[in-house]
Amino acid sequence: MAKNTGKGNKSKSNEEVFAGFQNLRSEQRQLANKISELEMDLNEHKIVIETLRGVEAARKCFRMVGGVLVERTVADVLPELEGNRDRLPAALQALNEQLARKGQEINDYIERHDIRVQRGADSEPAAAAAADTKTNVLAASA
């Protein structure tokens, strides 16, 4: 644990502030990755459903369920795929709302801890100016 001398328990060290910021950014990236993954799943579901609609219902097909390849018929698989396809937009909407809230949480964290995020090599003059004032500065590579 870092010592907070004379500033009380509310004060955090620069390392703690940076770690908190990095944690929030990591959570934001995970949400964005999950959204991307679900969007790809939705597109794959649409393609497979469109393909299976042109096939006779008694024809056998294979489906991956929990890492296991299962043999079924088109008549069994198609309703399941359509149900999944219908539920994916709601899940995507919920994740997009979480992503928006996480972005707001990051902005609040930046404001609360007086953080200035700098990107790239052009940030060096701003870093020199920041040395004169008491603020937290994060430099992120693009």
TrEMBL record:
Alphabetized UniProt keyword annotations: Chaperone
Bias (Polar residues) ranges: 133-142
GO biological process: protein folding
Superkingdom classification of source: Eukaryota
Transmembrane segments: none
An annotated Gene Ontology molecular function: unfolded protein binding
Cleavable signal peptide: none
Transmembrane helix as UniProt keyword: no
InterPro entries: PFD2, PFD_beta-like, Prefoldin
Cellular component, GO, one term: prefoldin complex
Region (Disordered): 121-142
Self-association and partners: Heterohexamer of two PFD-alpha type and four PFD-beta type subunits.
Family: Belongs to the prefoldin subunit beta family.
Functional summary from the UniProt entry: Binds specifically to cytosolic chaperonin (c-CPN) and transfers target proteins to it. Binds to nascent polypeptide chain and promotes folding in an environment in which there are many competing pathways for nonnative proteins.
Name of the protein this chain belongs to: Prefoldin subunit 2
